[in-house]
Amino acid sequence: MPTKVILDVDTGTDDAVALMVAALSPDLDLVGATSVNGNTTIDNTTENTLRVFDWIGRPEVPVHRGCDRPLARTQAEQLNPARRIHGTLLDLPPASRGAALQPGHAVDWLIDTYLASDGDIVLCPVGPLTNVAMAIQKEPRILEAIPQIVIMGGAHDHGNSTPSAEFNIWLDPEAARIVVNCGRPIRMIPLDATHRALVSVDDAARLRALGTPAGEAAARFVLKRIDGYDATQPMPHRAGAAPVHDALAVCSIIDPSIVTTEFIPVDVEVNAELSVGRTVCDFRFRGGKPANVEFAIDADEPRFVAMLLEILGRTA
Ligand code: BDR
Ligand code: CA
Predict the structure, then answer these.
(1) Which residues have C-beta under 5 Å from ligand 2, the single-atom ion?
(2) Coil, helix or strand for 163?
(3) Is the pTM of this model over 0.85?
(4) For ligand 1, what atom is nearest to the CA of residue 152?
(5) What DSSP line would sit under 165-215, residue for residue?
(6) What are the tens digits of pLDDT across the range 126-175?
(7) pLDDT of residue 43 exceeding 90
(8) How many distinct structural domains can be found in the chain?
């Protein structure tokens, strides 16, 4: 039986690859997608999500528009971010084959869907955690219906928005803190893992050679990501390759052994001047708190790339 999953996305280029993996993998049953402010504005992340489903021939996947700003933060960069690695609108045609925004706010749809479920839908947020935190705050009973939350976010060794914080957590640290401490099984796929599974220019050529809509789009997005990373945050000793963070999170639902994790106490810094948004990882259990997060510290690059090639070679 395929695993049911909901993706919560701030669709830029790596969210787009994650959505295509989730929509095309025979091992996953994509129940729907919810959009959130993050890589770009909510208008753009919603439109991008629709473009992806339309492009790969899955226009029937429900898309619900979510929160347009973080729970508490009001910096211009958090309210209207535009990042070099993603741009604003994806390089895909506007949705014309039927992908349509569903009525109803994403937070309410998450609540209704989980309350009506059999407790078997994995939640996979790969953007800022605003929608998920709002849903938990508004209807805490959904927690018992969520079997697992697989989050792309966080960083221990180094950040990307600041020296110590990863973007998804930094953009809405208050939301991340609520989700990380919600008491449900959580797996985090942080930069420590995603930077260990890079996709290269050669891999992009292989994706394009698949000859499928998903392969073509993934090749385009990977090359855009590589340009952005090489220009602004080159991978040490690996020019011509870039992480595709959110897709690794989805692949880890299909095959959890693609990442190596440690089960440790993790919390989110919300009050600091220098390290707001840091995922504070207690690898040595110094804080006296129980483990709450399976935190990924490594990933298997060859298997990740092989999964992308296998899944994105499929058509709907
Ligand atoms: C995360 O931030 C976003 O830019 C990406 O889509 C990914 O979810 C990586 O830090
Ligand atoms: Ca994302």
Answers:
(1) 10, 15, 126-127, 246
(2) coil
(3) yes
(4) 8
(5) --HHHHHSHHHHHHHHTSSS-EEEE-HHHHTTSEEEHHHHHHHHHT-SHHH
(6) 999 999 999 999 999 999 999 999 999 999 999 999 999 999 999 999 99
(7) yes
(8) 1
Residue list, ligand 1 pocket, CB within 6 Å:
12, 14-15, 39, 126-127, 152, 160, 166-168, 245-246
Atom of ligand 1 nearest to the CA of 243: 9
- Going from the C-alpha of 128 to that of each of 151, 233, 237, 304, the distances in angstroms are 10, 21, 29, 23
Residues 176-204: tens digit of each pLDDT: 999 999 999 999 999 999 999 999 999 99
Q: What is the CATH number of the domain that holds 173?
A: 3.90.245.10
- The boundaries of the domain holding residue 57 are 3-312
Known active-site residue 10: yes
Q: Is 49 exposed, middle or buried (0-12, 13-18, 19+ CB in 10 A)?
A: buried
* Per-residue confidence (pLDDT) for residue 237, from 0 to 100: 83
